[in-house]
Amino acid sequence: MYKLSNPNASKEAVALLDYLSSVYGKKVISAQHTKTPQQPELAFLEELTEKLPAICGFELLGYSPNVNYTDTDEEAITEIMENTNTIDTAIDWALNKKGIVTYTWHWYSPMRGHNKSFYTRYTDFDLEVAMKGNCPEYTAIIRDIDLMADYLKRFRDLKIPILWRPLHEAEGGWFWWGARGPEPCRKLYHLMYDRFTNIHRLDNLIWVWNSIDPEWYPGDDCVDIISCDIYVRDDNPLKEQFDELSKLSENKMMALAECGVHPDADKMKEAGAMWLWSMAWCFGDMLTSKESPFPDYTPEEWGKRQEEIKKRYRDFYNNENVITLQDLPWR
Length: 331
What we know:
- This protein is an alpha/beta fold.
- It has one domain (11-327): Glycosidases (TIM Barrel).
- It contains ten helices and nine strands.
- The chain has an eight-stranded parallel β-barrel.
């Protein structure tokens, strides 16, 4: 069995990790990210497959304190508004649906950002400077971390464990927390872990690291699960990435934290690449709209592609190697 990095982890977090450990390598857990309280993805999946994911993904973007509303476009404002009230929705998912919760935070730049300032191109915030401490940048980071801790305490107080995946895709450099390289990012992760764990006592968190690159890895002592985000258009089981990720640690389970469409579950098993969970990113009305979101598809080609994707969802959710919401033993 795997152990949590936090010696004071809540019994609910321990129980969840024990369950994850019990299925790891045998089956893959279905997961779906959503970004609005309406969660059209879940309604679509339930109608299409007659099932729901065991894990639902949520976003803290809408709780960001640093939105520059005077220099932010309509698309960004819409995204923020769509992401409001995700905490209430996540609590309902956990308490009433009895599903598993995972959270991501597209962290708006603590200072000097505009538009979608979680992207590097929309801020000149320098994490390397911030992590030297004793400066306005460091103070701003502490402020944001403590604010988010207060939001997450609602889950702690309700005894809801969270698969917490902060600072995702850092090695790509497209988010400000990865723009200055691995060392400042590792320091930021350690700072967040320390404050969340030792000051705010968020003992309900299961910490999910999200990068394949070993240079960025913050260490086994503050990570519980390792993961990566991979977007491909075919049903590749992603064996190469699975093996590469395994080099980070011999002591951690591995998850496919984001994908466009799930890999084929049978191919995962055949390849020896049974991800702990596979989470498809939110798709809104993309699979019901006649208008293609991708310029390389004609409307006719997109219609065919939609049917292919729908079939892959049906096959995935009805595969004997996939755990869905109704399969969770505590329901």
